[in-house]
Amino acid sequence: MLYGNARCIGTGSVKVNGSAVKDKDTVLRIVVYALSIAVALLMFFPFVGLVTGDLTVPVGYGTEVYKLPYEGIIDYWKQVVLFFDSASFTGFKNSVIVTVTSTVFCMYVSSITAYAITAYEWKLRETFDKLIMVIVLIPSTVSTIGFYQLVWKFHMINRLSMLIIPAIASPLTVLFMRLYLKATFSKEIVESARIDGAGEFRIFNQIILPLLKPAIATQAIFCFVTSWYNYLVPAIILIAPKKKTIAVADSSNLLLYLLPPVLVYAFLSKYIVEGIALGSVKN
Hints:
Layout (H helix, E strand, L loop, with lengths): L1 H53 L1 E4 L3 E4 L2 H17 L2 H32 L5 H12 L7 H10 L7 H8 L2 H14 L2 H9 L4 H12 L1 H16 L3 H6 L8 H4 L4 H29 L1
Antiparallel strand pairs: 1-2
Helix pairs in contact: 3-6, 3-7, 3-10, 4-7, 10-13
């Protein structure tokens, strides 16, 4: 009986401790959710101020009043229509062309370069790999003057291609892809595909590119943002008004100026999360 009572007491203590642990977990979750919501609101607050700033009109000298919501939306829509009908739309269109083209080509060329360094054995592979590391450490602004002189000598001023071509060769992106492939690349899969008769480009496009999807999504965000907000080089080599990007032509409409990078991040972030989840399962 005593042993049975002791056993009952022990079981009861376990239940009490279990409920205490559950209470601590609940409190911890509440604290984490509260902090997460607070941080999200702090990050979202500048965008709220940006939108409400567009919904105000000056009255008198230095005073502003807020319009009714529907009036602000109608007036803002009128501003958007005028924006796409004005010369500023040319800058927006040029930025889309330069940014999307340079991002797509940069991701593909950087991925195939990293694959060539990782998958193939060739004489100067290690030297080329170290050269990429050295180039990454050199600030891009150092080469701006030399790049402008080169563009001037080849009579390529006011050419959007002069913003696309340099962005294709990104040493930092190649380095990132190379490090990612070191951790995920499997020679057995490539050799099996070769035995089945698959060509090298088919192997890269159907096997390696899907494998690099999280890395490509991550670097695509950085490449897009860097190209979209690039101001120095476009301001130097794009002189004609019809050739200027949005960063140089008109960045006063902040909501439209900030919207494309936000949309790109919202679209690509899910691939980053999927890659992290897949890596945790493999490990």
